[in-house]
Write a structure and sequence with these properties.
alpha+beta, D-amino Acid Aminotransferase, Chain A, domain 1, eight-stranded antiparallel β-sheet, five-stranded parallel β-sheet, 14 helices, 26% strand, binds ligand MV4
C-alpha cells in the first residue's frame, strides 16, 4: 500500500480523498493555489504545498508544478479527484514516466474511452447499445446528410473530443445540417484542438442514467448499480439519486451488465462511470465514459455500502477487490443535492464570498461532504460547489422527506446558495411522481 499520496485537487473532493487516506493510514500532501491558501481543509493533510497563482491554468492544471509538488512531497501516488487533470491521459503518462502511481485508469484505457467516437466503437464491439448514428467521424456535408436521412431527423452533432454537452448541435433538416456540421467542426477545433464530429439520432427528453463501475488490476470488474442524474440545468447536475426511479428491473440489470462489458473491452480498471440516456420507452443507449471518480459518487456508496475512494486507492496500489457481484446489493434510496455558491433567483449567478456562519445538517441518514466552514471565503476562481448533502433512507419518499428536512436545517450566512431551489424541486409533484427527464429543471424554473 502507498505510504504517502499527493491530493491534486481542491475543495470538497480534496477533503474526501484526505479522509479516505487517513482511514487507510496513508499520509497526504495537499496542493493549493494562492486563492486557496489557508483554507481549513488543508490543515487535515500532513503537508500542503503551493503550486501557483489563483487561476487554475497557472496552478491545479500545471502538470510540471503538480509533479514538482509530488517530488518535493515524496509521495508514491497522486489522486487527481475530478475535473482539473483527472481525465488527462498525458498527465497519467507523465506520472508513469516519473514512477508515481496515478489513482485512476491507465493512460491507454483513458484514451480509448476519452475519445467519444472511439468509445462508441468500443461499445459496439462490446454489444452495448449505442444511439443510431454515424459509424465514425463525418468527413463532409454529403456524408452528414446521408447518415441523417438514414437515421431520420432530428439529429445531434457531437464533438468526438467534447463531452458533458460541450459542442453539441441539433439539426432538423438537410439545410440546417450542412451549416451545423461546418460550425460544429470549427468550434470543436477551436475548443478541443480536434475538429472530429459524429452524428446521433436526437433522443427527445431523455433521462440520464449512469452506471458506477469499479475494477482492479487483476481482471475483476464490478458495477455498483446506477445513478439517475436527470435533474440538471445546462449540463450542471443538481440532484442525483439511486436507484433510478421507474426504471424496469430488467433494464437496470441490462445496463449494468453492458457497462461492465464495455469496461472490460476497454481494458479499464479503477472507478469509472458509464453514461447512458434512456428514452421515453425505456430503451437505453451508451453515450460516454467518465474515467474518474465523480461528484455524485456518495449516492452509490450509500446504497451499496462500498467506500469508493478507499477502493479506488486500494486497486491503484495493486490490491485485489474482495467483492462478489451478487453481494453488491443496493439497499434503500439515496439522494444527493449539490449545494453551490450561486443565486438560483438570479439565473444561478455565482456568489463567491465570505461564509459568515455555516450550520451543517445532521441526524439519521444524513451525510454532509463539504470543505466549507464558518469564516471560509469561497474563491471566485473555481466551480461553485461548497458542499454535497446526501441522504439515505429505506424508500424514495423517506429520502425526499429527510432531504427537505436537512436542507431546511442547513444554514449558510453571507452568501447565496442553491439550497432553496432544491427544496422547490423536491416538493414538485413531477419529482414526487418521478416524472423527471433532462428538461425537468428548465420546466420548473421557467414556470415560476
Ligand atoms: C444526447 C441527447 C439526446 N440525444 N444524445 C448531453 C451531455 C452529453 N453527455 C450527452 N448529452 C445528451 N446527449 C442524443 N443522441 C441529450 C443529451 C442531453 C443530456 C444528457 C444527459 C444529461 C443531461 C442532458 C441535457 C441535455 C441534453
Amino acid at each position: 500500500m502507498f505510504k504517502r499520496i499527493l491530493v491534486a485537487n481542491r475543495g470538497e473532493i480534496a477533503l474526501r480523498v484526505i479522509r479516505a487516506c487517513r482511514e487507510l493510514g496513508i499520509e497526504t500532501v495537499a496542493i493549493f493555489s494562492e486563492a486557496d491558501r489557508g483554507a481549513p481543509y488543508l490543515e487535515l493533510a500532513d503537508e500542503a504545498i503551493c503550486v501557483g497563482p489563483s487561476r487554475a491554468a497557472d496552478s491545479y492544471l500545471r502538470i510540471d508544478r503538480v509533479i514538482s509538488a509530488a517530488e518535493i512531497g515524496n509521495v508514491q501516488a497522486i489522486h487527481p479527484g475530478y475535473g482539473f487533470l483527472s481525465e488527462n491521459s498525458h498527465f497519467a503518462e507523465v506520472c508513469r514516466s516519473c514512477d508515481i502511481g496515478f489513482i485512476g485508469p491507465t493512460p491507454e484505457a483513458m484514451e480509448r474511452v476519452g475519445d467519444k467516437n472511439s468509445a462508441r466503437a468500443l461499445a459496439r464491439e462490446a454489444k452495448v447499445p449505442t444511439v443510431p448514428g454515424s459509424e465514425g467521424i463525418i468527413s463532409n456535408e454529403q456524408e452528414a446528410v446521408k447518415v441523417a436521412r438514414e437515421i431520420g431527423f432530428p439529429v445531434l452533432l457531437k464533438a468526438t473530443a467534447g463531452g458533458g454537452g460541450k459542442g453539441m448541435r441539433v439539426a432538423a433538416n438537410d439545410l440546417a445540417l450542412a451549416s451545423a456540421w461546418q460550425q460544429a467542426s470549427a468550434e470543436a477545433l477551436a475548443a478541443f484542438g480536434n475538429p472530429g464530429i459524429y452524428i446521433e439520432k436526437y433522443i427527445e427528453r431523455p433521462r440520464h442514467v449512469e452506471i458506477q463501475i469499479l475494477g482492479d488490476q487483476h481482471g475483476n470488474m464490478f458495477h455498483l448499480w446506477e445513478r439517475d442524474c436527470s435533474t440538471q440545468r445546462r449540463h450542471q447536475k443538481l440532484i442525483e439519486e439511486s436507484p433510478s426511479p421507474r426504471l424496469p428491473q430488467a433494464t437496470r440489470l441490462a445496463m449494468a451488465e453492458a457497462a461492465v462489458r464495455l469496461a472490460k473491452t476497454a481494458g479499464y480498471y479503477s472507478a469509472g462511470t458509464v453514461e447512458f440516456i434512456v428514452d421515453q420507452q425505456d430503451n437505453f443507449y451508451f453515450i460516454e465514459v467518465n474515467a474518474r471518480i465523480q461528484v455524485e459518487h456518495p449516492v452509490s456508496e450509500m446504497v451499496t455500502g462500498i467506500d469508493l475512494l478507499k477502493a479506488q486507492i486500494r486497486v491503484a496500489a495493486g490490491e485485489k477487490l474482495d467483492l462478489k457481484q451478487e453481494e453488491i446489493i443496493p439497499r434503500g434510496h439515496a439522494i444527493e443535492c449539490r449545494i453551490n455558491a450561486e443565486d438560483p433567483a438570479a439565473n444561478f449567478r455565482p456568489c463567491p464570498g465570505r461564509i459568515d456562519r455555516i450550520v451543517a445538517p445532521g441526524g439519521f441518514g444524513v451525510r454532509w461532504d463539504s470543505h466549507a466552514a464558518s469564516g471560509y471565503v469561497v474563491p471566485p476562481h473555481y466551480d461553485s460547489l461548497i458542499g454535497k448533502l446526501i441522504v439515505h433512507q429505506p424508500t424514495r419518499k423517506d429520502a425526499i422527506d429527510t432531504m427537505i428536512r436537512a436542507l431546511r436545517e442547513l444554514r449558510v450566512d453571507g452568501i447565496k446558495t442553491t439550497a432553496p431551489i432544491h427544496i422547490e424541486l423536491l416538493q414538485n409533484s413531477a419529482f414526487h411522481d418521478a416524472q423527471v427527464d433532462t428538461t425537468f429543471v428548465e420546466r420548473v424554473v421557467l414556470a415560476k
